[in-house]
Amino acid sequence: MAEKIKEVISRNVWKENQVLRQILGICSSLAVTNLMTNSLVMGLGLTFVTAFSSLTISLLRNAIPHRIRMIVQTLIIAAYVILVDIFLKANMTDISNALGPYVGLIITNCIIMGRAEAYAQKNPPLISMLDGFFAGIGYTVVLLIISLFREYLGFGTIFGFDANFLGFETWTIMVMPPAAFFLIGALIWITSNIFAPGKGKKS
Amino acid sequence: MTTDINPLVIFFASILTSNMILSNFLGMCSYISISGEYKTASSLGKSVTLVMVFTTVLNYWVYKLVIVPLGLEYLQYILFIMIIAASVQIIEMAMDRLLPDLHVKLGIFLPLITVNCAILGTTLFMVIRDYNFVQSILFGLGSGLGWWLAISALAAIREKMAKTKLPRGLEGPGIAFIITGIMALAFIGFSGIFTIT
Q1: How far, in Å, CA of A147 to CA of A78, rounded?
Q2: CB contact B189 to A (< 8 Å)
Q3: pTM for this structure?
Q4: Residue A27 is nearest to which of B25, B81, B171, comparing CB atoms?
Q5: What whole-number distance in Å separates Cα of residue A141 and Cα of residue B73?
Q6: Shortest CA distance to B151 belongs to which of B11, B48, B8?
Q7: Whose CA, among A86, A187, B28, B135, lies 20 to 30 Å from A15?
């Protein structure tokens, strides 16, 4: 069991990182990453939804008829997303406004559906929940790395605190959309060199 | 007030300045994975446009006639996603009967589109920005055309450079993101023409 947990952690957070290795869940990982606080909240929200929807789907895996499983899974995911959305609206109104539609868009985030289809459907509940949880953590880590660059170079701050010790001119381009594309392209380049030296992944 | 904005401004702005992919990052999954070939990418773009207009109109009426009067705002995500799934199914069946040729071309993409975030995103933007009916139709159409434009452009570029030698590890998704970044930079050039938020 302990071996299995270790395997789940290293696979989801690092070896098969959902964003960098599987190229899933890109939409939100780019849109919210101009501020670190937003990225952290988004990442935790997604982790919560992935973990609990994996748990629920795994518990129901023998009860859901195979042919309509997609719509059932979508409904389960949507229910948890509504919880996150209501929680954010009540407790963190500013962040909820800043994230705008992207909280609702967790529903169509491919990571959750991916974990449900690839793992939760065939495995017992607890390990599925862990799998979902660490897939979410892997996503959060990537979000934080991207937003660290974007926020520090774009505003000179980290988590909203002034950290511009070097006194450099902030780069407006970093908070605009193109920088997100360049950064994620570079991160994918780096990770695919680490994991598959010699052969690039063809898509 | 957003209701004062000329619908045509919304239409052009959603194609150029607030393009679904290049400035809102929506629909990235299929955008990256199905942009290897121009023909396929263009067909996917067409299906997305079709579904987007259809679901935006449907969701507009559901929002105005069902969700708001009954105070069901907290259930809106479930309702929207179910309507999208159902209308994709209906479009697929109707196409199979009425336009079998088109169905052969676009059919495989239609189920994929249900989980395309650009579709749900368009609906959510429409709700948040409080568009009226005409604005919503043109916003849906413009967003779809903008998506089509972006995926066709990326696919055409990727097809041209299929034989180019790239640095190790950058092939496939890596370079696709870099190209998209450059495209997004180019599209910033339009930003003075229209502004919607």
Answers
A1: 26
A2: no
A3: 0.86
A4: B25
A5: 32
A6: B48
A7: B28
